[in-house]
Backbone:
């Protein structure tokens, strides 16, 4: 009763922000992402590898992330997630789970997306559930990180919000595979690799409850999505890049306008360097170097460009004193099982 899965991270070009059902992780809007795949200069890609073993010989559940025992929150989330999977299989064996990220954990690089998908895949396989990709996506969503629903698939992925109360139709689908437009690059630019302050789940709840602009968000995102999918279909980089950037700035406007949350602090995920880099990308674009950006619930920036500008942009990004690292990605395959276990 042991299995290992490798799941890629992903970046939303139209974001998810806000839930209509908190416990079931049901979003207020459909959203759309590119799955992070390896490139020539980054053959490893950005992914999480997770091994899960169930056994009646274990007397407790154990969770190890990046070589360390998980903190209380991560432990409780994992146990709650695996309880759902134990329930589906009708067993109550204890488990041991070990997870390894090949990129900074919890700093806006969607380690929760790849982690949630790898956890759902490894645990369900270990218990012999053999789920369809759709069911796996529902299960990944229930990890608590909604974006995990998208990491199940490769290429260009839409998480359809669904209509049903039970959430069974709220799962991701692959819209275009990773070979549809391989020349797109997302340069994940590390400005700060420390763990962020307010988790997305908590931040989006604060936005739904207290942001006076929140009512505008679902319709903004849905209309961006309607324009983005045809732009990706016809490989129209200028339109697609700009929609991704607009959607990101709309998301951060919602965050900025969120009133003080339970922790009495404003929901500002930007670091000063985040803004500096946004302005830099605008300046490069004005010069004719075509690049856009998108930013999640953290300070780091993903610069979007085409393959022909990748080298120039990487050099320019690395020459900025506040850039710590640049990790290139392109559309890649979805989650898979692996034969080699972590323990
Ligand atoms: O998947 P979560 O619950 O970590 O939330 C993700 C939220 C954003 O990354 C900001 C947007 C998205 O769609 O990935």
Residues:
């Amino acid at each position: 009763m042991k299995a290992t899965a490798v799941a890629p991270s992903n970046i939303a070009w139209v974001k998810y922000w806000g839930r209509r059902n908190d416990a079931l992780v049901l979003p207020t809007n459909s959203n759309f992402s590119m799955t992070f795949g390896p490139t020539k200069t980054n053959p490893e890609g950005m992914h999480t590898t997770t091994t899960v073993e169930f056994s009646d010989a274990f007397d407790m559940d154990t969770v190890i992330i990046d070589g360390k025992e998980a903190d209380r929150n991560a432990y409780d989330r994992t146990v709650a997630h695996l309880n759902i999977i134990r329930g589906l299989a009708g067993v109550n064996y204890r488990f041991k789970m070990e997870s390894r990220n090949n990129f900074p954990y919890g700093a806006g690089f969607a380690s929760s997306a790849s982690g949630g998908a790898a956890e759902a895949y490894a645990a369900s396989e270990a218990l012999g559930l053999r789920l369809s990709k759709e069911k796996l996506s529902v299960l990944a969503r229930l990890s608590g990180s909604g974006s995990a629903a998208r990491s199940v698939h490769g290429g260009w992925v839409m998480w359809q919000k669904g209509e049903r109360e039970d959430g069974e139709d709220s799962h991701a689908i692959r819209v275009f595979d990773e070979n549809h437009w391989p020349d797109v690059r997302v340069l994940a630019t590390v400005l700060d690799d420390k763990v962020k302050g307010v988790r997305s789940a908590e931040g989006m709840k604060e936005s739904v409850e207290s942001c006076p602009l929140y009512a505008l968000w679902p319709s903004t995102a849905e209309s961006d999505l309607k324009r983005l999918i045809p732009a990706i279909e016809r490989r129209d980089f200028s339109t697609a890049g700009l929609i991704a950037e607009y959607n990101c700035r709309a998301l951060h406007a919602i965050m900025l306008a969120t009133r003080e949350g339970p922790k009495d602090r404003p929901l500002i995920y930007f670091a000063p360097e985040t803004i500096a880099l946004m302005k830099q990308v605008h300046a490069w674009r004005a010069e004719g170097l075509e690049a856009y950006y998108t930013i999640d619930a953290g300070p780091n920036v993903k610069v979007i460009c085409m393959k022909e500008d990748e080298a120039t942009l990487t050099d320019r990004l690395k020459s900025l004193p506040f850039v710590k690292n640049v990790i290139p990605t392109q559309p890649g395959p979805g989650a898979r099982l692996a034969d080699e276990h972590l323990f």
About this structure: The chain is about 35% helix and 25% strand.
